[in-house]
Specification:
By secondary structure, the protein is of the alpha+beta class. It has 8 helices and 12 strands.
Length: about 230
């Protein structure tokens, strides 16, 4: 009986430690922050991502609080989370970093939220390769904003990736060229407990618990956009 009590106490303490580690996991926090960014942007009545654009995106990538320096050539670094459409729903999250490149405007040193929509199969192939350069390996353009995309826009034809930023409460299309997007191996190991290829995450639908805030919002807004 005493041994059983000790065993139960050990299991209880292990459960508390595990829960604490999970709550303190910075990757889970990043997933929640990405969900919040998407929710706040799409909830804006007239300044969100157009339904036609959101409904056509093959993959959605969000970098909450990307660090940006207002230097002559610009400097950016951020960690984000991405998911792609599959026949079974939105994929498990894939973690990436984005670094370098040049914003189309300089707004001083501050953090901005970055959203990238991968719009076609070619762009998705670049993302699955786990490393590509915007503007070189994949064409990128500032995305249109508003509840609906204007009929005369050519957003379907002009870019594999549409990019947006939100800074100081202002959401707008973003010119972002030269940035390198690659797999965040550290975050992948931390989230999944092992290393796995970028393409595996983006083609698997197991809906891990820590990913649900982001995947839930993606499914929600994709459904709204398709109406």
């Amino acid at each position: 009986m005493k041994k059983l009590s000790v065993l139960l106490l050990v299991l209880a303490l292990a459960g508390v430690c595990f829960a604490t580690e999970e709550d303190d996991n910075p990757v889970n926090d990043r997933v929640k922050s990405a969900a919040t960014v998407l929710e706040e942007i799409q909830a804006a009545p007239d300044t969100g991502i157009p339904d036609e654009v959101m409904g056509s995106a093959e993959c959605v990538a969000v970098v909450p609080s990307m660090l940006k320096g207002g230097f002559v050539f610009g400097a950016q670094y951020g960690r984000g989370v991405a998911s792609c459409r599959t026949l079974k729903g939105w994929s498990d999250p894939a973690f990436f970093t984005v670094q370098g490149g040049s914003f189309g405007f300089q707004i001083g040193g501050q953090a901005v939220d970055l959203v990238m929509l991968i719009m076609n199969h070619k762009g998705m192939e670049n993302l699955l390769n786990s490393k590509f350069k915007l503007g070189a390996d994949a064409t990128v353009a500032a995305g249109p904003i508003g509840r609906h995309a204007a009929a005369d826009t050519d957003w379907k034809m002009r870019a594999q990736v549409l990019s947006y930023s939100r800074a100081r409460g202002v959401f707008a299309g973003l010119e972002l060229n030269g940035a390198v997007v690659k797999q965040d191996r550290e975050s992948t190991r931390l989230f999944y407990g092992r290393m796995q290829p970028f393409a595996t995450s983006l083609q698997t639908v197991s809906s891990p618990q820590g990913a649900m805030p982001f995947l839930h919002d993606l499914a929600k807004w994709a459904k709204i956009a398709s109406k």
